[in-house]
Amino acid sequence: MDFSGAGPVRGVCFDGRMNAPETARRLPDPATVRDLSRRTALLEFLVNPDGRYRRYDFVPGWRPGWDLATMSNGGGDEYAVALSDTAGLIRCFDHESEMSPYANDEEPWPGTVDALPAEFAFLMADADFSGGDELSVSALLWCPPGEASWRTGVSGEREDGSGWLLGGLCAADPARYHHEGFQDYYGRSLDLHAVRAVFEGRPLTEGTATGLNPEADPAELVRRAAAYPS
């Protein structure tokens, strides 16, 4: 099955119409965002261990003191989340958003990049975080060091894609959110209890592996997952 160009389903278990100010209010603290990002990437690895068309990735120790979580749907929509022990920065890019620089004379929407605190500028200058394109940003959200809540510089009058892009991080039930999203994306059934086991951080068993990928050798999948970055 060819998954190229497929992506998250807008609105699955979540209001995809939200923009950055509302998304910022719904996002959990950076430590929880890190945990959800790591477990989402691990879940997709278990569902699709060979990697073709995987959307989510998590890189611990990406830069000294920082981890990096990313999502790219192959169709021009993506996010990047840089997380330290005390702070975080999120870049969203919905290529169809009216807040995309490509829809605004190739200028970032006022209140996005220009409102970013200087302490995060080095992250925006990093190609791994920016996606190698400084115009690939329709929303920015940041959590200053030592705080638990996220901020943004826009007023929230227009859609920016952050609501549907970050739905899995904001959802009240992330396991159900990704259960539905991955079933739709990969076109096959997944065991919800197995998905919950991953998000609850339970030790990975062969039964859980089978519930997520019945065609794989469960012992081999468990072995490979033990070496997956976390």
Architecture overview:
With 230 residues, the protein is an alpha+beta fold. 34% of the residues lie in helices and 14% in strands. It has one domain (20-187). It is built from ten helices and five strands; from the N terminus they run ααββββααβαααααα. A five-stranded antiparallel sheet has the order 1-2-3-4-5, covered by helices on one side. Mean pLDDT is 91; it is low at 1-7 and 9-14.
Give the rounded overall mean pLDDT: 91
Q: What composes the largest sheet? A: 5 strands, antiparallel
Query: How much of the sequence is in beta strands?
Result: 5-15%
Distance between the termini: 29 Å
Q: How helix-rich are the residues, as a percent range?
A: 25-40%
Q: What spatial order of strands do you see in the largest sheet?
A: 1-2-3-4-5
Count of discrete domains? 1
Count of discrete alpha- or pi-helical segments spanning 4 or more residues: 10
- Helix and strand element order: HHEEEEHHEHHHHHH
